Amino acid sequence: MNLRAGSAVETFMTRHTTARAALATTLAAGLLLAAAPSAQAAQAATAPGTFGPYGYGGVRLGMSAKAAKATGKIRYKRPFDSETCSGWELKAHPAGKDAVGLYISKKRGVAMIFAPKGARTPAGIGLGSTLTSLKKAYPGLKTAASGYPYIKVPGNSKAYYAFLVNSKNRIYEIALALNTQDCAN
Question: Is the pTM higher than 0.85?
Fold first, then answer.
């Protein structure tokens, strides 16, 4: 899915690294799948450093900008603003000059969170995991038209994970996003 030419979203998306822009475009596909929550995923979701099913590092999907700011765990990144969303980073995990750690939608609150180094999904998938381990951890994994794997988040029917995989079949980007996110089109 391509960004609309000349849109505010395109303007702020072009300021990201190629990986972030590609992942946000994948996230914009409105990926909706049915997946039953598992007891194992629910138990693992409470472990420190767990990425999902509802958020990461004290920041939860759907949390208003005001509530997210009140956590004291995020920092605003002005160059990534659009008409509908603003770019932020987790203070504990700076995203770098050309990236963000999360997007906050004016309508939906925290809409997308990108996994920092060391974070793992409840199924144990993190940056550097192999495509083989991803498929084993998430047997219902689908592939978007753009070629990136994604899956509805086990234990959270309102969200999905999207993964970017490099030529060596290693995950180099993971996002947790609301099904209804409006930060990329």
Answer: no
